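Batch 3, record 17
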Amino acid sequence: MTASSSSGGPDAASARAAAISVASRARTSGWFRSQTSRRLGVGYLLLAPAVLYVLLLVGAPFLFSLYLALSDANVGEPVASFVGLANFRAALESDVFYIALRNSIVFTVVAAIFKGLLGTTLAFLLLQPFWGRKVVRGLVVIPFTLPVTISVLSWKWMYDSQFSVINWFLSRIGLVGSYGSPDWPVWLGQAHLALAACIIVNVWRSFPFSAIVLLAGFTSVPTEILDAARVDGTSFFQRFRYVVVPMIAPILLIGFLFDTVFTLSDLSIVYLLTQGGPANATKILPVLAYQVGIQAGALGRGAAISLFLFPLLLPLMILLLRNLKRRED
Amino acid sequence: MSDTQPVQTDHASVNRRRFLKVAGGGVAGSSLLTMLQARQAPAQIKGTTLRILQWSHFIPAYDAWYDRFAKEWGDKNGVKVRVDHIPHLDIPARMAAEFAAGAGHDIIYNGSSILTRLYYKNLADLTDVADAAGKKYGGWIPAAKSLVEVEGRWYGLPIFYILAPMLYRKDLFDANNLKYPDTWELARVAARTLKPKGHPTGIALSQCADANLFWRSMFFSHGGTEAEPSGASPTLDSKELREFLRFAKALFEEGMTPEVFSWDDASDNRYLASGVACWVHDAISAYRTTEDTNPPVFKNTFLGLEPQGLPNKRVSVAAPNVWMVWKFSKNQGAAKEWLAYLIDNDLVGMTESRGYNMPYLTDRYKKPMPVIGTDPKLQILQDFPKIVAFYGYPGPSTTPIQEIVNTFIFPDMITRFCRGQSMEEAIKWGVGEYRRIYAKHKGA
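Prediction for the assembled complex:
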């Protein structure tokens, strides 16, 4: 501080005037320079990469697939013309589409039920203290981390119509007949067995993921709350239903959402096991879209078929996200 | 329909740009012809790189030879050659990706599903190479051009096809007084006789390439056709189709098991090699697999010509293999040179593939052919070129046919009937799908 300012002379007066002028400038230039606005600015700046990422990697492909679905684009034709809803109409006129739609729903729902049951059981098992728990926790993720082609081709061998190790085992314990007998299951050749076989591989591959999500949730529940519930005389299922589930609901919902999206859009398992056969018995929408759009070259129709996944997923996503928001509030 | 619309050309207006284009093209074409005839690579390909994408052959030794052979050619001509192999089912997706990116390999392979019609506007015109090879080797077998020709130009080079004979167990046939399966009816009798004795038969009836090929052979041999000779419209709905379906279902019920609904392209190889099958209709990879894995069964495995459906009616639908050059390729000269060289050496390829790769050029059928001509059991394959056909028979492999093939409509129709749907319902579905796809392409 200078001598003049401390004395309260003319300099002090000018400083006061300057302070008043700064305040008035701040008022006149709006809220842009306020702390809140700066905080918001930094916030948006930090969010920008994520928004850009979503726009580029989700929004742009979605808009592009909309464009394709409304055009007569094919794989070898760079110029496509607008055909309105013709591709959607063509899909709705084909009964293979309805088979694929039904299979997609059955596939997703049945797989979700089994993944939920097995995932919860596994998560509880992994919570228990036992020797080698860390190793087992590491091993359970193997199905999820193995390259899908390798694991599915291994399953294809296990389901082989002639050399199936599953059938060999079932035959040895007397549950099915020997090879060549009528009750020898042909896993990928009988309609219901083929769909079940695809679901089994999907469940095998994905339930460790569900278990790990649940495990993360379970370990986040404070033990004091569980102890208090135990003191109040609650049973294991009551504690699970009324204490654990409400507390980890956001994790459960997000996990469920991810899993549903992954399952419904999963092309690889069905494609590698059956290509959608026999006679479309295992055809799901992504496989149909791939065959029509890429293999047969009708990009517009393939895009239209794949877009039918959107109205299937949208209500579920809205429901889950609204539930999540309500819980946050 | 997109396939049959001719390119509009205006011959009246020859402006300066057009003159230069035509003259330039002529000079380039004639120099290429000279170069092809001289069998010497031009200096301008020296120092370039040639990238080739193709399938992983069912005979792995062929891939090893091909890669080595391509490299040797590259070394001789100063071209760096890179060959990538991927499973044949992944080729369409890869092709779409390369087209969308406008970059990738210079030469791209198509096997089984041939996509020349879909991409021809984006493929290099290989008519000059095809004409030169045709002149040199006595012309192409009739079915060859149906795979690659669009509006009079060749947009791909057929280098080999994979045919499918009857492979039958002579020991089992002899022991049961069964006749050589020269007709489908005799094959059915054998299947019916030997299934109760633990030796059923099989042709894949799933969504795989074999199912698309072999049931079509049976259908066409029964007098059926898939499209008009021009390829303009489908001709599936016919009394021949009904006859064929009746036969196919009887053959399935009497001689096969539901295993065929789950088969992939290699299942029939394993079926024969395991000693279970009394006959399979397959490529000679089944013969080779048996040779490598089960010598006693191999000793008794014999080959037959495509069985007749009607008297003297034999049509064998083969798996075509075609090489194409992208228009965006910056090394079309080297690509054409390599393909011409490969055609010159297709008999070497046939040897290296253990007789698997059948050539498309007439002179190549001079007996004895390599490998198959010297093996008494395989000699019969030398008589196949006259009866070979491809998808869309007797028409060309058009865009609608390619879509039909890739969505497995034909085998699915048979599967529906064999699994219990009524014949008319199965036909209504199949014919409906054919018409819908043809109508879509007509409107395009």
